[in-house]
Amino acid sequence: LKTEKFDLLVIGAGASGSGVALDASLRGLKVALIEKGDFSCQTSSRSTKLIHGGVRYLEQAFTKFQFSQLKQVKHGLQERKYLLANAGHLSKPLGIITPVFSTFEALYYTVGLKIYGFFAQKDHLPAARWLSKKEAKLLSPDLSDDIHSAVMYFDGQLDDARFALALAQTAHKSGAVVANYISWQKFIFDASGKISGIIAKDEDSGSEFTINSKVVINCTGPFADNLRLSANKEEEPRIVPSKGVHMVLSKDFFKGDKAMLIPKTKDGRLIFVIPFKKSILVGTTDTPYQDIDREPLLEKNEAEFLLETLKNYVRKVPE
Questions:
Q1: Residue 302 and which of 164, 196, 235, 319 are 20 to 30 A apart at CA?
Q2: Is 305 helix (H, G, I), strand (E, B) or coil?
C-alpha cells in the first residue's frame, strides 16, 4: 500500500467494496481495498439475511402504478438466482409464510406472490401456494390461532457477513492488495485538481501514510457523503441517513424452519421474522438517524413497535 501505485483504490470492504475490488482485479487492474474496521463490520453484516427482489416493490408497482419498480424486482430476483448458484455454502432457499385473516387476503397475497414467482423464472425455487390454517400451524406452530390461513413463498437467505468476507478473500486471491483497520483521512490532489490518492491511517499503530491510485472508489455506504463532500465542498449532500433495527430472540419464540412475513404495519412497512442460525431475527424498522458516527442501537420504543406488530401474528409475544 505504501510503495505501489494502483489503478483502483476501493475504500470500504463491505459487500459492495469487496465486490468492486474482485471484479476489477479479475479484469487485470492493480487494485487496493481498505476497510477502517473489520471486514463487513457495518451495513453488510446487519441485514435481514435475505436476498430477494422486494415483495413491497412489486405491490407498489401495481397498487400505486409505479411500474418502474418492476425493474427493481426483476433485477433483485436475478441477483438472488446468481447468489444461490454461486455461493451455495453461504445461501439457501427459505420458505416464508404470510399469515392472512380473510378469504380476500388469502386470494390477494396468493395472486401477488405467484406474480413475484413469475418474475423470478427458472430459479428452481418452489412456487408460492396457499396453506390452510392447519397446514400453516404444522409448519409454524407458534402462529396465532386467529389466522384464517396463510400463503407460503420462497426467497433466498444468506450469511451476509461471511459472504462479504468471501468476496474480500477472493479479491485478495485474484491479486488485490487487501487490508483492514486502515482508514481514510483525506484525499490527495494532483496539479490539475484530480484525486491521485489518499492519506490513510493504520488504526493499530496510529501512523499515517500515502496510498497512490489513479482512481478512488467510494464504497462507504451511509458514510459516503462524508468522503464525497470532502472531495468537492461545492457538492450538496445526497444521503438522508435512516436506521433499521432488528430484535434477536430465542428460537423458542418461533419454532420451525420457516420464516414469516408480516405484510402490514402501522407505518406501511413489512416486518420479517427470520430463523438464522440459533436465533430469530425480527425487523426491520425505518426511522431517521442523524448521528451516523454513533453506533445505532435497538431503543426501547423500537422494540415496543416490533412487539406490538407481532401481537396479532403469533400465539405469545416475548416479554
A1: 164
A2: helix
Question: Which pLDDT tens digit goes with each residue over 24-56?
Answer: 999 999 999 999 999 999 999 999 999 887 887
DSSP tally for the chain: helices H, then strands E: 8, 16
Region of 65 please: left (phi>0), alpha (psi -120 to 50) or beta. Answer: left
- Please name the residue ranges forming H helices in the chain: 15-26, 55-63, 69-86, 103-120, 133-139, 160-173, 224-231, 300-310
Task: Identify the residue whose cell numbers are 430459479.
Answer: 123
Regarding beta strands 195-202 and 208-218, do their DSSP bridges make them parallel or antiparallel, or are they unpaired? antiparallel
The pTM of this model reads 0.88
Kindly tell me the sign of the dihedral angle through the C-alpha atoms of 287, 292, 298, 299.
Answer: negative
Sign of the Cα torsion 253, 257, 261, 267 reads positive
- Cell 475504500 appears where? 11
Residues 6+ apart with CB under 8 A from 85: none
Task: Look at residue 60 and give its three-state secondary structure.
Answer: helix
Q: Which three cell numbers stand for residue 253?
A: 419464540
Q: How many residues does the chain have?
A: 319
Closest by alpha carbon to 198, among 179, 180, 217? 217
Cα-Cα-Cα-Cα torsion 96, 101, 104, 110, nearest 10 degrees, comes to 10
